[in-house]
Amino acid sequence: MTGSLAIVGYGLSAIGPGIGIGLIFAAYINGVARQPEARGMLQSIAILGFVLAEALAIFGIALAFVFQGE
Amino acid sequence: MSLPLLAAADEGGFTSPSTDIFWQPLIGSGAFAITRPAIVFALTAVLVIVLLLAGTKRLAIVPGKRQMAVEAVYGFVRNTLARDIIGSKDFRRFIPLLVTFFTVILVNNLWGVIPPIQYPTMSRIAFPLALTIMLYLTYHFVGIKRKGIGRYLSGLVPPGLPKPIVPLVWVLEFASVVLIQPVTITLRLFGNMFAGHLILVLFITGGEYMLFHGGFGLKLLSVPTFGMAFVLTLFELFVEFLQAYVYTMLAATFIASALADEH
């Protein structure tokens, strides 16, 4: 069996952003459920938070491919 | 989609797709080759220009179907992105840039799932990088022009911080504005399109291998594999819209923070 350990490492590193994005949208849903009229404002904040958490996962996949050949 | 891969599958086991599938020179070779994404990008430019011109050719107070569609896209970028984020005072002059970002990225991304083309241009880093260089020059230029270079640099630190930590925060904010923000916005668009395309190729070529080269069990398993390919294509469609929105939103955010009086 051959392959790159870097990809397994990426799989592990995706756990963090995954949990983070889950927490962000949980908070968003909570906020909208409590105060439906704040939806528009909360939505852009939630997307901004989602984007920041997602950046870590994207760095992970870029680095996984960079170090694949080592 | 990736002919080299299908050919390789004939000789022995299944080869999973790698980064090589993105390098597809059509004319010439080496650094100056005209590649498939370059042609797709040129096609996008023509398509966006034609669609926008056709939609705004005969402007009427009661809009027709085409004008309505163009106005919906324009209005979305103008109202929910430019005006709400940059602020009603100086959002007007950034609308052309932001509408260009949104339409070009959206059409380029959508090519990723449209059958005869099926290549998301932004999965080659050069394309998002070129967009980001434009954005980078724009937001530094307007920031420095508005405040002068000294106030632009000193305005990076939020006001009201205790004195001792001001230099530390300034270094962080400076690194963020000069390096981290443009790198993350580029890598986000690139990474999403790259990973999405890779996973579609994996499921589709994997399903093809199972169906035509596998035993009876694998032939049965190819059905859920193609099912996953279908589901992930729909997911990609969603991601493509989301990334065009996110890129434009972040572009507006960067411009807004470069123009803001206090951080």
Describe what this molecule looks like in 3D.
The complex is a heterodimer of chains A (70) and B (263). With 70 residues, chain A is mainly alpha-helical. Chain A is 81% helix and 0% strand. Chain A contains three helices and no strands. In chain A, α1 runs antiparallel to α3 (39-66). The longest helix of chain A is centred in the C-terminal third of the chain and has 28 residues, at 39-66. Chain A starts with a helix and ends with a helix. Chain B is an all-alpha fold and 263 residues long. Chain B has one domain (3-259). Chain B is built from seven helices and two strands. Chain B has a two-stranded antiparallel ribbon. The longest helix of chain B has 48 residues, at 166-213. The interface between A and B is medium-sized, with 12 and 16 residues.
Quick tags:
A: 70 residues; mainly alpha; B: mainly alpha
Task: Summarize the helices and strands and which ones pair or pack.
The complex is a heterodimer of chains A (70) and B (263).
Chain A: H1 5-13, H2 15-34, H3 39-66
Helix pairs in contact in A: 1-3, 2-3
Chain B: H1 3-10, E1 25-27, E2 34-35, H2 36-55, H3 65-86, H4 95-110, H5 126-154, H6 166-213, H7 216-259
Antiparallel strand pairs in B: 1-2
What is this structure, in a nutshell?
With 70 residues, chain A is mostly helical.
Estimate the global geometry of chain B from the Cα principal axes.
Answer: globular
The coarse silhouette of chain A is: elongated
Structural class of chain A: mainly alpha
Describe the main β-sheet of chain A briefly. none
Assembly status? heterodimer
